[in-house]
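Consider this today:
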Amino acid sequence: MKKGKFSLQAIIILFVCSVVALSLGITDIIISKRITSSVEETEKEKALNVARMTSLSPSVIDALDGAPNQTEVQEFANQVKDKTNVNFVVVMNMKGIRLSHPDPSEVGKHFKGGDEGPVLNGKEYVSISKGTLGKSMRAFTPIKNSQGKQVGAVAVGISLENVTKAVHKGRMGIFIGTLIG
């Protein structure tokens, strides 16, 4: 009788290790996809909430509804941006002209990205586009006056690089756990 290269015990150990490694790998993929989806959804909700909050500001509504002091909008938008850790808060009128922007030289110019059309027709949404500050996830919300008439819109952006970093950070813990497993 001829003996094989590996004993039955070695074959069983290799088989069990392969099954465990495959199981951990599949688990890592499934959990990583869920984390990616969760982080993206969280960032999307954050941007939408900041946009909604900004759209309700009386100083923003008044400036878009014809009040003469529009410099308050720039100051307010920058304060919101700084406090909420987003990349930009841009308030625009119904023609898509910016009343605020992180770069003051962009105030008074048309909004860039080409994805602002639906918000100027009253639709709230999130898109991904490239503007003057690079590629970002952008939440758009219409701004309405006290009579319910739309007077402008707000766009809040979070850099896709920041979204990617947050996803990577979340997935790193899963990857380390898989390696230990």
Observations:
- The two ends are 39 Å apart (CA to CA).
- The mean pLDDT is 86.
- Helices lie at 8-55, 58-64, 71-84, 160-180.
